[in-house]
Amino acid sequence: MARHPYSEPEARTAQLAVVLRQLRIFLFQRSAGEYSEKSSSQRSQGIGIASAITIIIIALLWVATSLTAIVRLRVFAPDGLHLAPARPNRLVPSDVILVLAIYLLVLVITAHVIDPIKMPKDPFSSPQPIIADLIARLGAVAFMLYLIKERFSGGMAGFGLRLGKLHSGIFCGILGIIVALPVVMMVGILSTLFKKVPVHPLITVLRDHPSVEIRVLITISACVAAPISEEMFFRGILQSFLAQYFANQRTGWHRWRLNIAAWHRHDVSSQHDWADIGSSPASGGGDLPPLAGHPASASAMVPPPAANTRDRWLAIVITAAAFALLHGEIAWLPVLFPLAVGLGWIYERTGNIWSDITMHAAFNAVSLTINMLHPH
After folding, report:
1. pLDDT tens per residue across span 304-322
2. What three-state secondary structure class fits 78?
3. Residue 350 CB: number of other CB atoms within 10 A?
């Protein structure tokens, strides 16, 4: 009978050695795997922390640079807008109301033409409501162009809508959003600590809706139609009207013009002393010099007074509040109000509405991009 190469004790010892060797290999591989996973997790966490710190440092530097630029530009200086371009105009309250009325009227008519049965409950889930809004904005812009021609001294140039100023307006608008954006975003982030800010329905639809047509229309509405129509109305019409109104009240220009009209109606002798009428706001005070000819021409000869820094800032703040409130969500007020103040200031400082349109369009484009890339 053949003898086994190992005796029974030797065989057991060999089997135990094999088991120990396999156990050692298993434990080593497991420990190595755990170490590898732990190291990978630590590396990922370290990279995430480093990236977050880098972003925070860049953001803080951007905010500091923005605040420095605001100080250097003397945005809030008492005479910061003293040399800003004048925009004399003869706008009246009914002009402002008519712009809104025409927008709403065209919107209702367009929606009726499209067919109310086809209009969805969600205004952004179908192209029809967006198209109706675009047409209504176009109607409002057309009426505002008429007002600019009729009410502003210098027409389009006096309003700041000359094509020759487009390039400089785009440049100023880009600089404006670079300066304003970090401050606006910082205020927005701080506001979320107290109340959750809802996502704009346009952004929700743009992010979730499968239709390319809807996405294109929303992008056009947010980045083209809204900046043009809203800046022409809020900054161009409303803010210009308010600044001129406060200047007229401060100088008494309205009362002086009414006196001229009354004098003309009563056919007062042309030898009447003009000092009895009052001082001329256009000349900065003092008695009016005698004018040859009939006094009926005096109202046309003396233009509306220029707004000073106080008049302009009152107009900027009131317009900014209206702009923020009319967007329909109180939670957006902390973001929209400082943005609107920046838009109002840059319009007063440059007299170029292209700057505001560019700045507004850039802000909307950045907002859409951020919310698309980081929906939560």
Report:
1. 888 999 999 999 999 999 9
2. coil
3. 20
Rounded distance, CA 319 to CA 242, Å?
8
Closest CA to 369 of 182, 190, 206, 171: 206
> What does each C-alpha distance from 200 to 128, 314, 327 come to in angstroms?
19, 29, 10
Cα angle 217, 218, 220 (rounded to 5 degrees) comes to 65
Tell me the pLDDT tens digit for each residue of 52-74.
788 888 888 998 999 899 988 88
188-203: burial string, b at 16+ Cβ within 10 Å, e else: beebeeeeebeebebb
- Phi then psi dihedrals of residue 89, to 5 deg: -150, 165
What are the start-end ranges of the H helices in the chain? 8-72, 93-114, 127-151, 156-159, 166-192, 201-208, 212-220, 226-230, 240-251, 253-265, 298-301, 309-325, 333-350, 353-373
In the block, which residue shows the tokens 């009131």? 318
Residues ≥6 apart with Cβ < 8 Å to 189: none
CA of 365: how far to CAs of 21, 31, 43, 210, 361, in Å?
A: 64, 50, 35, 20, 6
C-beta separation of 367 from 203 below 8 A: yes
Tokens matching residue 291? 């004018």
Contact at 8 Å (CB) between 351 and 85? yes
pTM above 0.90, yes or no: no
Report d(CA 204, CA 221) in Å as an integer: 15
Among 162, 163, 166, which residue's Cα sits nearest to residue 152?
162
Cα–Cα–Cα angle for 163, 167, 173, nearest 5°? 110
Spatial separation of the C-alpha atoms in residues 132 and 115, rounded to whole Å: 11
